[in-house]
Structures are given as C-alpha cells and as structure tokens.
User: Fold these one by one.
Assistant:
Number 1:
Amino acid sequence: MFRYIVRRLLQMVLTFFGATFVVYALMFANIDDPFQALVGDRPLTDTQRAALNAQYHLDDGFLTQYWHYVTGLLTGDFGRSLTGRSIGEMLAQAWPVTIRLALLAIVIASVIAVGAGVLAGLRRGGAFDTVTLVLTLIVLAMPIVVLAPLAQLVFGIQLGWFPPTATRDANLYQLLLPALVLGTLVVATELRVTRASVAENLRADYVRTARAKGLAPKRVVGVHVLRNSLIPVITLIGVDIGVLMSGAVVTEGVFNIPGVGFNLLRGIRTEDGPLVVGFVSVLVIVFLVINLIVDLLYAALDPRIRYE
Amino acid sequence: MTDITAQVDVLPGLDPRAPLLHVEDLNVEFRTRDGVARAVNGVNLWLNPGETLAVLGESGCGKSVTAQAIMGILDTPPAHVTGGRVLYRGVDLLQLPESERRKVRANRIAMIFQDALSALNPVYTVGFQLGELFRVHRGTSRREAKRRAAELLDQVRIPDARRRVDDYPHEFSGGMRQRVMIAMALALDPEVLIADEPTTALDVTVQAQIMNLLAELQRERNMGLMLITHDMGVVADVADRIAVMYAGKVVEEAPVYDIYAHPAHAYTKALLESIPRLDLKGRPLNVIRGLPPALTDIPSGCAFHPRCAYAREICRLEPPPAYQIAPQRVTSCHFVREVLGV
Amino acid sequence: MSDPNAVAVAEAPSTAPRSLAGDAWLDLRTRKIFWIAAVLVVVVLLMAVWPSLFTSADPRDCLLARKNAGAGGGALFGYDFQGCDVYAKTVYGARDSILVGVTATLIAGVIGLVVGLVAGYFGRWVDALLSRFVDIVLAVPFILAAIVLARRLSSNPESNGIVAVIVTLGVLGWTTAARVMRSAVISAKNQDYVAAARMLGASPARLMLRHILPNAISPFIVVLTVLLGINIAGEATLSYLGVGLKGDAISWGLAIADAGPYARTAAAPLVWPSVFLAATVLAFIMLGDAIRDAFDPKLR
C-alpha cells in the first residue's frame, strides 16, 4: 500500500507539471502578441502591458514564463484579473457555493446511479432495466447547454417548483435544481457502469461459491457482488469531477450562481485572459488532487491493486 | 465438532437411515436464444457415506451441471430443472423451499470448484470468507468466526494459518488457494462433498497433494465424495465407483476395478483406449473420432452412435435401456456383450 | 465446463464460415434502436447537406418587427428575439454542427488511431511515454482545456470561429479513442495467431494492418461514433460559452445562448434548437450503442 501511495504521488507530480504546462502552452505558446491574446479584442494600454508583464513575464522566454506561472500557482499567488482584483480572493469567495453545488450533485447522482444501477443489473432485460436504459440514453444525449436552460425554463419558470436562480449563500432548496442538472451529466454513465458491473459480477465464479455456501440472495448481492461492482464506479467518480467542473461553468452561468464556473464564464465573455488562465489552472489542480484521493480509495476497496 | 450437527434445524422428512444421496432421473435444460440445450437427460446416481464416486466425462457432458443441480446453484434462467428427484437422506431437495434448501448447502452438501482463484471473492480476506459460514449459519461472532477460520486453515495444512486468515486470495499460491476452498467446503462438517475438477487447474505435483488431502479428510469424517473429473488417472487412484457420462446421461456405472478391466460400454472402452500407455509406445493412439454432440442437437437413439465403432442401425433408432450386468454394474449399450467380448 | 451457461454456446454447431462484421450486421438489422438512430442520422445529414429541402425560408432574413412572434405565416416555430424564422435557423444550424462534428472526429480519430496503435504495438518505453501523455491530456477537464484553446485559436475577429472549434475538439478529443485502440491492440497482439504470424516473418506494418487492426477496429469505431455525438454537443457548448462559433454563424449552441435570456417571453427559440441538438447527439450515441452490442458476441 505504501509503495502504491508513493508511486501515485510521484505520478501526480509529473501529471501536475504536464497538465499545467499543457494549459499554459495552449494559452501562450507560439503567439505573436501574447499581451493582446490575454485581453482579446480590447485596446491595450502601456500600463496594462507593464502590469501583465509583471504577472506573466511575457517578455521572457517561454520556459521562464512557465516557471514563474508554476511557482505562482504553488505559492498560492494566482495573479490579478484584468479588472485588478486578486484571483485568489475571487476564488476564495466563489468556492464555497460551487463546492456545495458539486457535492449535492455528486450525492444525488451516486444515490440514483448505484441504486437504480444495481436494480437494473440484477434484472437485466427486465422492464425496469429497459426503462432505465432508455432514460440513461436520453440523459446521455442531453448536452448541458440543452439541459440547464430547459430545466430552468420548465421547472424554474413555467412550473415554478424551484427558484430559477441562486445566490452566493444559497440554501439547499435553491441549489437543488442546478444540482439535479449537474448531477444528470454524470448519473447516466455511473448508472450504466454500475449496471454492467453488477451484471458481470453476478456471473462471476465467486458468486456461485457464495450461493454454494448457502448465503441468502440479499447477502450474496449486498456483500459479495456490491463491493466488487463499486470498484469501477469509484474510479469513474474521479473522471466525473472533471465533467462536473465543465458542467458547472454552464450551470452556474444559467442559474446565476456566483461560483467558480460563473466567474470563469464571465472571464471568458469579458475576454479576461488572466482570470481564465488562473481559474482553469486552479480547477485542474483540484481535479488532480481529487483524482489522487479517488485512486487511494480505489486501492482501499480493491486489495489486488496494492500489490501490483 | 460433532455438536454442530445437532444445532442445525432438522429437515422435515429427514430419515437418517435413508441413502445419503440419490439422484433419480434428473433433467436439466438451458433455454437460450439459440435454442434449448438439454444438458442433463435422466441422470441416476447414488452415493454412500465414506464412498468416493467419480463422475467421468468429456467437457460438455453435463457432469458439472448435474453437480450444480444437486447444490441448487444453477442460474435460472437460463437453466431449468425439468424433472427428477435429488434425495438427500430421503428428502427431495428439489421440492424444498429455497430458504430450507439454503440450510442444506454447506451444512449437509458442500462443493469445491475448479478454479479457486475465481471462485474466491477477490476483495475479501480468506478469513472473512471462511468465517462468513459460521456467522451466517451458526450465528457466531466475528472474532469467534475468525478463530474457527484459522483452525480450518490449519486443518487443511496451510502453514502459519493464524496469520494467513488476514490474507487475500491472490496472495496464496494455486495449491494453497484450493486448500482454502476445501477448508470452506468442510467448515460446517457436511456429509456430502462435491468436488468439481478440484485439481484441473493445478500443477501435477500439487494435484497429488490436494487429492491426498481430500482423501484423508474424507476418511476422517466419513463423507460421501462425488468427484467430477475428466482425468482417468485421478479416478483410478481415489475412486470407489465410477459413473461415466455422455451427452447428459450416465452411460455406465461400475466399481473402479471392473471398469478398468472390463469396460461394458463402447464409450468407456473408447475412452480407456485413448489413454496413452507406455507399453504401447510407438503405436498410433486410439482416439475417439468426431466431437461430443451439441447439446441443442443430441443424436437420436444412443447419443454416442455417430462416433461408435460398434454402432449399428438399432443404435440410431432406439435409446439403449440400462442393463444390470452385475451387482453395482449398470450399462446403457445395445452391444454390451460385444464390448465386453463375451 | 466451469460455467454451465457456456454449455450451449460452446457446443453450438459451426455452420457456414461467418465473419464478425457479417454477424454484427445480421444482429444490427434486427435492432429497433439501430433503425431509429439510422433514420435520425440520415435526416440530420440531409439537413446539413441540403437545408432548402426542409425549408424555403432564409434563416438570415430577420425583421425586428416580427420579434418573438408566434408560429404562423410560414414560420413553423415562430420567430426569435431578432425576428428570425426559428425553424429555418434550426434547420440551417445542422450544417455547421455536422461539419464540426465530423471533421473534429476525423482529426481525433486519426490522432487516436496512430497514438493507440503505436503505443499498443511497440509497448515498453514508447507505450509508457504515450500513455503518460494521454494521462496528462486527460488530467485537464475537457471543456476547461477547450475554453483555453478555442479562445486562443479564435482570436481572429474576422473568422466565424469554425476552424478554431474543429481544431480544439479534434486536438483535445482523441484520448478515449487512443486508449481503446491501445488496449484492443495489446489484447490482439497477445493472441496466438499474431505470435504465429510474427514467427512466420511478417513485418510490423503487415502485422499491424492485416492481423491486429481488423480485430481492434470495432471498439474503435464505436468510440468514434459516440465521439461524433460528443463533438456536436461540444461545439454547442463552446458556442454557448462564447468561444465557439460566432459572428453571423448559425449554430444550435449560439441559438440556445441567444434565446436563454428571452426564454420567459418566448420559449420556442430556446426549445427547438435544444430538441434538434439533443436528438442529433442521441442518434449518434444510440448508433454507437447498437454497433457495440452487435460487435460484442458475449452479449449475444
């Protein structure tokens, strides 16, 4: 287990540099006027140019720029947006509501996915399974840009079941509709993986052994099948965090929730390059850390992985 | 460990003097999209305490399905038991409600599977998987269950058992894993042990150790052992009686020495002749021509007739009856006299 | 014999020689879901190639006087906040969606094919290097990377951003395809028949093309089919966010973004592009699903 953790940490260090480099290169590599690229179509004053240079060292060589950027990230200095606000402060203000939203979405999605997935997997080909499969198919085909505005229109405005927008200190009820929308993004894949995994594990030899031991079906499924089936679902959650982050940009934009995604969207729309790069970088780091945690959880669930 | 049997709920109709295990005219079919596969077609078997019955046959002959039908662990669907009786001490297990039948499994009749690595749950320690039996069937505490699990590992000669109860299946070698399987099967002191190709996945040297262990434990506990195998070599060493299966039927049944000396069914004879022998080195081997039949399309009459050297018109038309040719000897062959050469 | 369920399958009589693709097609033909998906795909493709077949109205013929007017007067779904015919705009929106989806998927497919094939076939350090690279690309959530890249590529104010979106989706979307190709190649490579061909002196190129690729291609095609749907949704998302198509481009994503603020008064301009977009994505995902099931003999 210890070796696994060490190896995984080393991998993460490598991936951290790789991923931040990718983000940085996507933004600045091989560009005629990086200053202009940061601010988009806006006119650029000399003072702004100087400020940007102080922040990004854009007049230096590319690797030096990257070095300054990474050390900034590691020391918690994310720079300032074009409006002059500290990106670190903006993040600190935006995080809480986004975290609550994401957690709510994950909880809703996991409960539905695992619950329905197990039921569908146990009765493959049954009525419940067929209906669930069709539903997941439809949900899978709903891009977030379709789902979020439509959900707001139908449930928020026309039916009026939920508030159509949420504030920074939104309560659970206000966040419920956006969280449902966000959760929908990942629920279908999680459900399908649970279902497939349960169905596959039901055919496994150890299930036959468990039945030969005279265990009741409830115990066979609840103890033997479930734990094995959840392993691939857990690994999926790591990937899902990335999907949720992307989805949060649109969802927070649509529902006017002043979280991380909302700020990022505003940064894109106002062509605030430093803000976009800063926010994306931090999101990438968060994504990496969560994936590390998920991998460790995975090792705890599956003893085979620890000895690889 | 004798007090344990007393704790088990008594099965209604259980007769201690009735035969240990008696399978009568068992039929199992698999209903699949490609048609109905008749895996077991009227199997008759019996087993006494302390006796080893080898069920011998090629893969696909229905021997594993028979075993799993006795245990009641076939997947339904696609498998359906369409007829027959499985009598354990006079109680027809097929008629028992599922909750009663569960108590028979592991308590009265236990089973060992071929591939211990896949038959053990990869994410639980062997101690948990062994202890589970005591916790579920005997209601013992976790600690007590673990203590007994270690005891069992010790009984199947796993070194350092007390420490190894906390290991996972993949941390054991193939032979050791099969010992764990055996320990699991013996945990609740069953009267019948069904071993489905217990040594097929193992190295030859380990095979012998496992078979010896099984034989020894069987003697100690006076269990009836039903050994399912396709390996004639294993059979000769340990079996008392042999039942040869072909296309879902028992075609010949006899004490082990008789069958080797005088096979009474064309299929048994062909099987024996297809074993390589040192004294016949250099001569071409007598292999059985053709393939075992598809269970969706079993030949009419005697199912073996398309591959049989003795086959004549009647073999194609009529299924052979079961001839009792000696005490404990039954064969289903139209030309039993010619096969025996008398 | 360890699995009683395998009995019937293993013993099935072998009839005439069959190919996996032929079998898959026979299986596919019987699936309702395949035909629904196929019809939807054909309709959307027709719409993209030949929009005037579906509408005679001009999507750019907008009159503010008709702002948010309801259906009627030839406009099936009414008019949006700029007075454009919603139905015509939606029909014409298919073209760029399909164009972006197909070309981006082709780019991603080629990159994924090459990376997966090379990593899987050569193994060792080549595989380690490429796999780490895939991990790194995957470590950046797709839309976040796309935002940065598309924003960067579409900095030219004159273009309508279509090339930027295609490159962005193509360059970032190949990872799954590469992973699937790699694992398919690795499992095919370890088959005995490939070892046999290698011993008979087949060159690496021949081994890859003749023996490995045909066996690895079906999961790859499935991934690409689904990716096509994902890319179409990706275009809409990027356009919605303001880093995709822009200017006078007609796109479902743009239409949704534009209609959002007015949804309270006029729902149709939001609803119809959403429905068309979802139906198109659904069609490709269903198609991928159906093909996968048909190619997976285990499920049969």
Number 2:
Amino acid sequence: MTERYDAIVVGAGHNGLVCSALLGKAGKNVLVLEANEQVGGAAVTREFADGYSVSACAHLLYQLQPEVRKELELAPTLSCEDMATIALAENGKHVRLAGVSVDGVSDEDAASYRRFRKRMTGFANLLRKYLVKAPPRLGTRDMKDLITLGQLGFDIRRLGKNEMREFLRLIGMNIHDELNERFANPLMKGAISLDAVLGSHLGPRSPNTVMTYLYRLAGNAGRVGMPEGGMGSVCNELAHAARVAGATIRTHMPVKRIIVENGRVTGVETVEGERFDSYTVISSADPKRTVMELVGARHVETGFARRIHHLRSQGNAAKLHLALDGLPMIEGLPKKDFAERLVIAPDEHYVERAFNPAKYGESSPNPVVEMTFPSFRDESFAPTGKHVLSAVVQYAPYALKGGWNDEARDTFYKAVIRTIAKYAPDIEQRITASELLTPADIEREFHITGGHWHHGELTLDQFLFVRPVSGAAQYRMPLDGLYLCGAGTHPGGGVSGAAGRNAARAILRREKAA
Amino acid sequence: MKNQPVHQGRLKTPFYSRLSQLDTVNEWHEWKGYSSANALYCEDMEYFAIRNATAVFDLTPMTKYRIAGPDALDYLNRLVTRDMAKIRPGRVAYAVWCDDQGQVIDDGTIFHLREGEYRLCSQERHFAWLQAAAIGFDVTLTHETEDVAALAVQGPTSFSVLNTMGIEGLEELKPFGLTHCEFEGSDLMVSRTGFTADLGYELWIDPDKAEALWDALFEAGKLFGIRAIGTDALELARIEAGFLAAHMEFLPADETVRTGRSRSPLELGLDWLVDFKKPNFNGRRALAEEKRNGSTWRLVKLDIEGNKPAHHSYIFGKEKGNKGEIGFITSAAWSPVCKQNIALGTVRTPYGKPGSSVWVEIYYQREMHWNRKMAQATVVDKPFWFPPRRGATPPGPY
C-alpha cells in the first residue's frame, strides 16, 4: 500500500516550498520530497569550512514578492537592507550607486543616472505587475488569457506615447549601447553592465540585456537585501510555513522518476524505490530535468520534447566562498562599506571581454566579481573577528572545453583571486579556507541542469508567454497531472517565490474549473 | 548519423537507362531531387495498363527511412496515430503522423521488415521531425532513399508477371503483406502494396540490381501487357482509389504558415487510424479534444453529375442563393474505368455527410470562351474503384 497525496512537490527549493505552503493552506494534503538533507535547494546556508558558513548559491535577496510574504505571513529579518553597490576602482576612487543617486561621478552623469533610474524603475514596475501573474497564452479564446493580454497592451500604452516607444525600443536592446548613450563614467557603466548580465550566459553587448536589467529592478524596486542567517533562514521560514499549512516535507529523498501510467501522472518513485501516489505532481526542478529525466521524453509529445531539449540553460556564474582571518584592505573603502555590495567591473568593455572566452567554452582570465562580506553585519557566519567573503564570479561556462577538472578549477580560482587582489592586495594572506562552486558543481549539488540559477536563460525567447517553452507557460505541462513551479517557469530565477505562487494558483484555479 | 553527400542538379534513378529508352514524349518533372517521367508515351494507354494489364512505375524517389533498435516499436507508436503493436513482422501499415496540435504532417506506409526493424515511406522528407521524435528513444534512423531501388508493379496481371518471373510464395501473400526472396544473389523484397487500389505489388532491391530486375520483369511481362508508366496515369488511379496526396488533400502541417490551413486525421476521414487506446502519441491530446468538440473540416469523395472534371472548384451547399462556399475540390478527374466524374474535396462540417448532396461550381473552356456549370454531386462513402481482385488471395491468373 503506497501513500496517496493530493499533490506531491518534487524539490524543496524556495519555489517548491511556497507552492506547497499555498496548496497546504488551501486544504491540500501535500508531500514535498527533497533530494538534499537541507530544504531550500539553491537557497541554503551551509558550512563550507570549520566555523564558517555562507549562503551556498543565491546570496542576495532581490525580490521576495510582497504577495508571497503576505499570504504566508513571512517576515525575514534582513541584516542589510537596500545595500548600495560600490564599483571598485584600483586607485581607490570608487563609485557608489544607491537608489537613484550615484557618488563619485561627474554631475552630468549623476543627473543622467537619476533620469535613467527613474525611467527604468517605471518600466520595471510595469514588469513587476506581471511577475505575479500567470502569463497569458497566445492564440486562445480563454477569457482570462485575453484579459491579461489586453491589460499588458493597455499598461504599455498607458506609459504614454514617448515612454511606450522608449520601452519598445529598449526591451530587446543590449545594455552596452544604452549605457554609452547616457553615461561617461566607466566604473558606473561597468557596474550596471554587471547587474544586467549577472547569472546569465550574456555579455553587455548581448541582445535583451536591458530586459534582464529590468528584471532585477522589478523584484523590489531595485533594492537588494541580505537575510540574517543567510538565504537558508528564508527557506527555513518557508518550510515552517509549509509545515504549519499541513505539508509533509521529507528530505534526503531524491526522486528517481515521475510515474506516468496510461498517459497521465500517477505519482513519483524515489531513488530508494519508495513510491508515493498522487494525480498532481509539481516539479520545482528545472524543466529539462523534469521532462527529459524524471518523466521521460517518450511520455510527452515530440514538439514539446524538442522545445524542452533545446532550452538554453547552461550556467556561466560560479560561486566563490572564502574564509578570512580578517577583513582585507581595500584602498579608499571605509570600513562601514564592507556591508555593501562590492563589484569588480571596471568598465563595460571589461565585462564584455570577460564574457568573450565563455562563448568558446573557456573561463575568463579576468573575471567580473560581485562580492559581499555577509559576516560583517551578521556574526552567525564566522567566528568572532573572522570573516566570510561570498562572491558571484563570471564567467565560468558550464560546458567548459575539457570539462571542470582540478586544473581548470585551479586556473579559474587563481584568476579570481588575482582579480580581487588588484583591489584587496592582502586577500591571499587572509584566506584560511575556500570553496569554488562552478556551474558543474551547482548542477551536481543542487540538481539544476546546466547549473543555471534561472533554470534556463532569461532571454526574450524564453520569457513570459514562452517560458519555459511555448505552449507550456502556465505551469501546467502537456501531460495530465504534471506541473512546474520552479525558476524555469515564469517569471524566472531569484529568490522571489513568484513562480511557486503562480503555480499554486494555477493548480487551484484549474481544480475549481474542473 | 553519417554524413551524406549533397547532390547538385537532378538525380537519375537506377531505372533511368530503361525508362529513357522507352520514353517518347520527353516530359519529366522533379520529384524530391530525382527526374521522374510524367508520361512515357501516352497517359491514357499507361492508365489502362494499370487497370487492364500490368503497369510498372519507378518509385525510387519516394522517401524511405529505416528505423531500427530496441525502442523502434515504442518510437513508432509515439510517432504515428495507429497502434503499431498490431503490425507483425512481414506486414505493412498505412499510417499518418501528426504534430502536437494533431495536424497531419504526412501519411505513408510503414513496413515491418523484421522483428524490431521498420521502413517508413512517405512522399515528403521528414528527417528533422523523425530525429526530434527520437529524443529519449534507443533507435537508429537511416535515410535510405538512395540505397533502395523500388518499382510499383500494379494491375490485374501483375501476379502472373511476377509468378512467371519465378518469384515464389506470392499465392499466399495478402494485401499489406511482404516477403523476401533472392534475385541474382541479392535480397528482393516484394510487398503487396500500391497506390492504385488494384491487385499490385511493390519491389524493393539493391540499386545495383535495378536494371537486371527491370529486364527480368519486362521479359516475363511480355505476354501480360506490361508497360512502364509515368506519374500522370498513376495520379488518375490514385484519385479513383480515393487515396490522399500531400499538397493536394492536405498540406504537411510543418509547411503551413496560416492557422487553419492544415488538417487533422479526423478531418481527412482517417478516424480509423487514430487509436485513442494508446496512452500517448503525437497529437493525442489535441485530437481527443477535437473528437469531443467536433472537427472543422471533412474530406469528401464526390460523384459529380456530367463529365466535366471539377478541377479547383468551389463547393456549395445549394444550387442557388448561397451565402458562401462550403469547401473546395482538391483532386478531380473523369474516371474512365468507373465512367464517373469523380473528385476529392474538403468541406466544412456539418456538410458532407455520406449520402448527402452538394453543388460544385465547374468552369470549363470551349474555344477560348469560359462556361460555368453548377453540378450536383453526391458524397460517397466507398472508394470509387475497389475491385474484388485487389484483396483476392491467392490472386487470379488474369
């Protein structure tokens, strides 16, 4: 006799937890199966060296959606709220970006930036409205789809003639061209470029990097925070909410396959061989893993399998964790600024050049770096007086020529340390332990195909109506009983909970209609 | 997949040397990269060879794929709408395959050559689609159009011709069956299949033996009225048989741009080929929905009054006072053997139920001037031509 549930959620990533909590609140008997020992998926806090811990993958909170906070009564405590971005300069004349203001640049640039941010925030707000909605399907006569689509058109039109034109001009454009039309200061252009390409296989000259920039702004009007206790504490809170809502969460239970019988999903089987029955299986795993591995291409139709097969989902961002016996010296940086977000992207060309080798399967010899010192404000990360550096480093292509062997990993590690040392010359002496997670490691440890933190490139051809693929953008897959709720679905990655919430709503709405 | 050379210009089939000797009218067209004869001496005489004697048609250019491997059956069952598990080795199945929207990509025949090994034949090329369909299956796909020479040998005396040639075992071979024998040291596959709805066979052989096979066939056929034919005569026989042709009765779904220009199997009268008992196949979800909600189009076979072929005609519900047409003709001909003015067409449902009447607007030219005629047509259920000898086993020695 196997156990039967109203719904089974594969993976206790933050989206899986949000989805299961909301389904639980709606009275469903939900089971969540997580492969790892900790809940949270890629949003976990874990120890990487004796006494030192860190948010293992995602380390900054951009966009936990207010709807999610409200519905699940979440109140994550932030150790840093609205962090500034400091674009490091070798000569110590750093540029500081905070909200709409920027320090360390000419008055002209500062004024331009204010205008730029205002406009971008306007566009981002438009986008934000649609993060928390199931994207409309095209070519249907469903009222809800038509209304949402009409609303989107109306919202764009309502920007006003000039702003609408500007929006349509910018949305497919690359950030490099836009920055060069507006600004002179290279550090500023470098930092914004980095924001536009962080976590993706894109350079500042790649198309639609304005859109990816808007996506970051859309989360929380561009505010970046750091949760106390790391990202794991957010997910622990989510897991608590899910349990309170009645969901059963079982960790260390990797799912081997989603069972399909007579053309519909009927449950899941774990690697251990245990079977759980449910006519609703919701996967927070990425679309490729879900469809091609857990379900099997043969159980879906060819066109759909082909689209999923061709999803672009190869990660290019690595994560570096350093245990330090003290804060490094950075010229011209006041001590309090170690609480902020420090970026190494001296100009927009530097970022593009860092991306160049990645196009051909090589890692960047001069990488771009986004670093934080989570231990600066939050003592839970490191022993007293010691510190942790948590950095996203690009570019480290998943499909590295020759693979991510020890030598390749060492080469990239050295390149990153060399790069950081240009700004913090004593960094190497301070390191007592380190951990480098390449996309290949992220794939292995967090079960994300390609190690891409968005579960699929965030580009216009994989966005909104067509995320993850056309014909499957509303969380329900073309296989009865199968749903997706992870970052691979609309709106995408980042610890937002939006995909999980949208999926839960789609499931409940469908149930009501049936 | 091994790389294959890309040919420049137009190819000649392995039978070209023989066909060109018989050719007197020099009318050729391109068929998937090959030269194919419209007619060799006289379309009418060639047509009567199909119906009254034996006609030989070179079908080498027809697209052929080999599908093999442990998952071949599962693969085909997901690809096509019918249940391939019922097609045993040595049997051939007519099948249709759809995209995810349940729209027909093409129809064709699938030969179960040996256990787990199949040949799929179709008019159009589909390698990209077949490869996409192979994701997640352990199958090998080979494009073998060039590697197999093929002849259709069709007509009432075709059994006698092949029998005289010394091919054994044909007495027992039922329609849609296949058998292997030896011809000059090579494997010769004979299937009882064809595009004419008459007694007939198709021969499949190594291209090196093509000319020898042709010579043996024509030697044996001397006393049985054997004739080589072109595509024009075959096309007439095809319409009499009520068979579909891609680009005539339907457009391959992957070639259409506008919505509503493709057709589902249900709209093409192929309901019998769609097996909803199979849990998954391409188009199943969409077709199940179509079955519930009703189809938009219906394929009709029309028996039209008069003798003017209804080429390209509109179809109307009434003789006069129509608000608009209800469909159009896709293939039309005067059938010499049925003595009927026949056509295939597509009409909007609920029009076109078998037994009902529709009107066809026929335009024809007399000494430069155009005439218009509204002709009444009856929707018929059965193929126009379907003689008992087609299915007789053993076939009669005509």
